[in-house]
Design goal:
single chain; 135 residues; Small_HSP; A-crystallin/Hsp20_dom; stress response; mainly beta; Immunoglobulin-like; SHSP domain-containing protein; HSP20-like_chaperone
Amino acid sequence: MARSYMKDPLLHFTPLRFVMDESTGGQVDWLETPNAHIFKVNVSGMNKDDIKVQVEDGGILHIEGEGVKEENKTEGVWHCLERGRGGFSRQFSLPENVKMDHVKAQVENGLLTVVVPKDSNPKSRLRKIHVSSKL
């Protein structure tokens, strides 16, 4: 199927930065509904204290998870050690029609859900600048 780049909404909403250790999660699904943008992030093995969600200046949603660190005091030879090492950091540029002050996040059963409600009356970011003949 050919992809229409003229109408592709992801061209405007692409991740800005992506740093991840795939063994700890951080894979994101982003769904836009008529009322909100919903982000679902795999955070297996992490609890709410391991996760940070914030909206930065410029409408940047930043989701970060700190990997679980287990004490390795077991005697023996490890043949495979993949769990709980590292973390992830994801950033997304949000569209202008969202309510930045109403973002909610919940973690349950290894899944972080971030809901960014849409604003039905977005404020214009257009600001007229007076032009004078002298500075």
